[in-house]
Amino acid sequence: MSIITISGLKKQYSGNYVLKGIDLSIDAGQIVGYIGPNGAGKSTTIKILSGILSDFEGDVTVLGMNVRENPIEIKQKIGYIPEQAALYEVLTPIEYLRFVGKLYQLGDDEINTKSNELLRIFDLAPKADLRMNGFSKGMKQKVLLISGLMHNPEIIFLDEPLSGLDANAVILVKEILSQLKRAGKTIFYSSHIMDVVEKISDRIIIIDKGTVIADGSFEYLQQQASRGSLENIFTALTGGSEQHEHTAQEFIDVLKS
Amino acid sequence: MDKLLLRFLLSVVSVFSKRDVDFDRLKIITETKILMDRRRVRVTYNKKDKDPKNPLLITLVVYAFFGLMMGAMIFFTESLLLSMIFFHAYLLFMMAMTLITDFSAVLLDTTDNQIILPRPVNSKTVFLAKLIHILVYLLQFTIALAIFPLIAIFITHGAAAGLPAFFTVLLTVCLAVFFTYLLYILILRFGNEQKVKDIIGYFQIFMTLLFTVGYQLLPRLIDFEEIVRTFSLHWYSYFLPPVWMALTIESFKTVQFDAIHFLMIACAVFVPVITFWVMIKYLAPSFSRKLSLLQNDQQSTPEVKFQGKKQRSLSSRLSAVLCYSALEKAGYELVWKITGRDKGFKMQFYPSIGYILVFVFITVFRSGRNFQETIDTLPDSKLFLWMIYIPMFSVSSSKSLVNYYENFQAAWVYQSTPIKYPGQIISGSLKALLTKFFLPAYLLLFLYSYYTWGPAIIDDFVFGFFNNMIIFFLLEVLSLHNLPFSQQQNLKMQSGRFVKVFLQIIIISALVGLHYLALRISWLIAVLIPVAAIGAWFFHNKVSSFRWKDMTV
To answer: Which of A205, A180, A183, A199 is nearest to A81 (CA)?
Structure first.
């Protein structure tokens, strides 16, 4: 059963189209990896699906609701975690989570219990009462993850969720995503880390210059592109391999000159 | 001026220190540091006004203006001793405050370790670069602060006073540097680098308050003529550095070298020199050691013991009483906490709070009349009306200030969460501002008014309280609606400022006028209180019912 449907999705910034007509249908309980080069339109798509951007062309429904007409109802049931760890850093993690919890209209007890427990799981309990302006990017990313998941959403949109995390945290987040999937959640996430996308995604969508250029399971994409890893498939599809080699050679030549 | 000073100091270095110093690298390091100094935002100019290319130049011009005032004071004060005490006290204070608030950026700057140390630059060059940087920094502030007073001394009292004054200025600067180092070391002894930065932050806020409020208030509080008339030195005066400097200048000018003058000259010369030597020999190295130790310790964030369930904060308890929805509580607590921690907000807003005092002095204790006479006649006047409405003039500026924030990108969270009525966050934030800033000032003024006018003014203050709430919420209704800490601080915030101030004056004047007229009928205020309460409630509800379409995003 489709939990997200996108048809004819277009989005422009000052006359420049970043999404040029996307059609997708996503089933419940899947992990969908959404990958593409910088500027391909990944973050824009996620923002539209999360009800953050409303001035787009086409139709988008999430959980059977029209994104344009029911953004509040949709936001209550989804979790969104952005790429940039922008937080009110003068607050402590506990204070920040309390603030976000209240925006989701959670009760005080629920906020306190969940914040403390989730911070403990992410090894942040000893720092729960410290202001976040001294935190590393990874620590902030963990707080961000908790803030987007603490209301137990049905669909989770993640924009580069692993950015800045250390190796252990990456493994933990991968495991959390897998278990969330087992619990019936739908996860739609963009990432640059190909091997993670390759390992945990049920379905991989590759987007380039505002259009979907590949869509299917890793095995299916492997078959289609006749390449080994997702990185190779991605490079082949986005036309990068020769270009990268040339750029690298040029760089070395300038260094030597 | 900094470039000239740098050129001068570099030429001195090139003559005296040729070996072991990489002159080209020294030049590029010092030039870069001075360029960065020029661009660093400083305390004395208001960040919100605009983003000038050279904030340092603005600071120096402001300081030169203070110097000009001091020069005028020297010019018009007959007593050389008194004017010199004032001048050196001013110089010592200004220099120490400038160093405490601004010098930290130089002293606590550890970027050298990351940027310069990994490069092929020898330690002597790095040391000299730091020294030259500090000297350029000190000299330009000294020149800005002291050039006009020195000219005034030369003109008014001749070279016999001017030449020694030139040296006492340098000695005073040495003392100011010593005091600054001493303060930093004392704080570091009892705290950490963050503590130093926090305390420096408080000094910066104090400086801002002093600049904006002090020059309004001090002339009204200090009777300069009285001081000149009754001036005399007491036994404890001889312990004060400005007195040493002034007596030194006086002894050269009047050729008096008796025991007391001789002792004072000795203090004026030896104390700064010795303390400066102690600073270079012991304090500065110990400071650097302590600082690098602390920074190594703080490579990882300090851990605090997790204490499980904690007591609720004051803001959380207040929001539970004053706010009716989770969104209002969220807005209330966010604004309460960030306004207490964000230095940018505090530096811009606290002077407005200070202005409450200025306004009270201007309106209630007017200058030009005998102070005691004013106090005596107050109970017969209706001047308590000012006490009721003055706090709102100052506190209302906080309303627009909380919209702006350096890290405004964090406001994405409002967009991604299911908020139907963003107005509730705004009404929560307005309540936080009212309880945190307006209410304490209002209560203090009420207590003073109660003491002066008696219980008859209680109903006026109750009526005034609701009127003030109407003003605060009505101003929000009439202006652009922004969520707290969601806007980038730039020139845009200035647009419509005049209109806002004009609106505010009209609304406050109308309500004060109504209040004033109501005073003529004894029972009317009591009748108007529920009307004002309903009005306040109406506008509060109006704000909380704002939807996304009403917001300026």
So the answer is: A180
